[in-house]
Queue: 3 jobs
Job 1
Amino acid sequence: MGTGLSSRRPGVAVEVVIDAPASFVWADVKDIASHVDWMQDAEEIRFLGDRRQGVGTRFECETVVGPFRLTDVMEITEWQHAQSMGVHHQGIVAGTGHFRLRASGSNTVFSWVEKLTFPWYFAGPLGAMVARPILKAIWKGNLRRLKARIEASYAKTRRANWGTQ
């Protein structure tokens, strides 16, 4: 969940419409460990403690973008059932990220916004500016995978429940 520049910059925002209700989308997204299944840049998640969800959950995420590999320490800072999840990034790249879910008819609009700061040895604000379109493209791909994953699961659930209502 992460990019951006400094707090003075808007960061990176991506969005997708998922053909499933917000409660169904949330049921998938709240499983933080499964984020590696749809986030191309997230290679591995290791929880720091017993918590697996909710505010205060901490974890390390092995993140790989091109030749760059880093361990991003994250803490969940916001958790509103079927509405939003916020995270604070600590480490080489720091900042915040937010997922927002909004109902739109029978669909869910899933928005992802990241605001990150890059250290001087990653060229600081200039590095962030260069990284922005790369990260945006990666995260758009992530949301395409999330959409496909959830819509396939939702269609399977609807077929299994067809005629039982």
Job 2
Amino acid sequence: MVLSGRANNRIGAGREKRYTNVAALVDTNVLVYRFNPRFPDKQRIATDLLREGIRSDTLRVPHQAILEFVAAVTRPLSQGGSLLTPEDARREAEEFLVQFNILYPSEGVVRAALRGAAAYQLPWFDAHLWAYAEYYGLPEILSEDFQHERLYGSVRVRNPFFANGGSVGPGATSRS
């Protein structure tokens, strides 16, 4: 399901006030909740967050999240079926490639992940996700898989599903 096209940035003269939008890194769980009707509050939050991120061009998606998304949404559910068929999952992954700026791994990202895993005792896949934000200079990660509002180096993690002092429902994904 297409959320909308990439935001077009226009430059013009006038009395408009300018604000700098700072991009945030989106974790896999936000992408998965977009397609997870078992958690309607999280699905609504994820949908709104992704639409706004596309409109304002303020979200970045790491390559890792695309891979994890396809694996998570095609994984068999305990009650049978999966969130998406393999065909739909591949189509949605292709849409993400068009709608968002995708960040790809580099030697610098891997080295940052190695340092992050050691310094913050993060599991490898979490350290790798954090490394994208650290390496690319993104000040925020949107994820429910880290401690809410914790600062890791120069990157703060915000759980978009954390409402009124508590998380909205159970988790959707786990990294293996």
Job 3
Amino acid sequence: MQKTAAPKIQINSTNPAVIQGMKLMAQAKKQKEKREKEEAKQKTKRAPIWAVDFEGTITTKRRYPNIGEPNVSVIELLKMARLRGVRVVLWTCREGEHLTKALEWCKGYGLEFDAVNENISEAIEYLGRDTRKVLADIYIDDKSFHLWGEEGEKKLWELVQNL
């Protein structure tokens, strides 16, 4: 059932009390709209999600199937981010025994993850379904390329031309 807007009523009055009352009503309406907008925003708000690669990102070099040296600054950054509410997903090609060893290695440095190679439950709820690509606000990977504006596109075209 569709709501119909109430007709606007024009009141022409020079009475200061009526004018003041109308101003207060307009302010109250604006405050109510602002509050409703903020409540709607809070309902859809979710914690930020970061997806992070292992080889060459959490480690300093790619040494697959072995494990490289720890990238201490990234490890500490991820630990701090988690303490501040960021949900961190390990997004790696490792699987099986190699993945288990990597997770144990990370745990040894105090780094744990909210998910591994899959979406966290909040992401699935937010999207209304599970997706093959891990949903993240930020993807941290040593092989990533940022395509920002004309400069990023120009660099990408240069890469293609040099192939």
